[in-house]
Amino acid sequence: MSPAAAEPAEGSLLLDDQLCFALYAASRAVTARYRPLLEELGLTYPQYLVMLVLWEQDSISVRDLGTALQLESSTLSPLLKRLEANGLLRRERRRDDERSVAIRLTDTGARMREQAAAVPLAIGDAMGLTPDQDALAKQLLRLITANVAAG
Amino acid sequence: MSPAAAEPAEGSLLLDDQLCFALYAASRAVTARYRPLLEELGLTYPQYLVMLVLWEQDSISVRDLGTALQLESSTLSPLLKRLEANGLLRRERRRDDERSVAIRLTDTGARMREQAAAVPLAIGDAMGLTPDQDALAKQLLRLITANVAAG
DNA sequence: CACGCTTTAGTTGTGCACGACTTAATCGCA
DNA sequence: TGCGATTAAGTCGTGCACAACTAAAGCGTG
To answer: A63 FRET partner, CA 20 to 30 A, in A33, A75, A104, B60?
Structure first.
């Protein structure tokens, strides 16, 4: 991690100067790395993220799931239907508020948690960062997310 | 940028411990920030990345474009058709190798570069990182990309 | 030269991601 | 109490992203 050889001019249009491209490329590369592991579980990457939330907090509304993952209902609704079709969760209208839909894991969905425990370990290994680098990367990424969302 | 309050256990399944999620969320947040700016140019974010490459190196093959952006021809071919339909570029078979297609900017596409110069500045501003943080983030992201691609 | 292998671009099918919109339920307040 | 505004989930259309595959061109070696 030595400093960059030559610091780019402000407002460069060179692809390799763009932080946004480094971000976009890294995100796709990591997702690609997950793909074969998740395929064994029959999950896509966004489906895996939904399962992570549900393993943390079962019986959550579509709205709160969207808040946690920063996804619209127009993305989540079909995704949740696919997970329901695969037997991992059930969707039921809340009786106290019929607008809201509660997402609950099935036994199959809950049991998948054990199998999934190996996944973050394998990916963490593949990313090959030291614990300090990992923490630093998370902090920088959250800072970026917070800043661009704010303006 | 103080250290994290509590370092997560290895292999945690908590969403907010996952570097992969921070990456995925940041990437989408940044793309969302670009959207209104690029809409004025009539571009999507991946189309903007293609234009960045072309402003750097005109008359490039689909293959080399794919290498630069780490995208498959199955993603690029339809995207390039849309850019061609919008009058920003032309596609022509190479005479010396009829398998290959050369992508060339039209005058309109080349002229868009001036308008686009403001975009990275605005985004850099919105990300709100110091030059050091920006450089560090790029280094970490490239390290992650290289590591996960390698294994 | 011939024929099989590789390379290049493109097509097809599936699943996100998001804007614009719809429907139904609930809320708030005049 | 009634009715307009708000909220929740979902549909639809467009555009990535990628795997699996196809078609056509070029290459290499017997």
So the answer is: A33
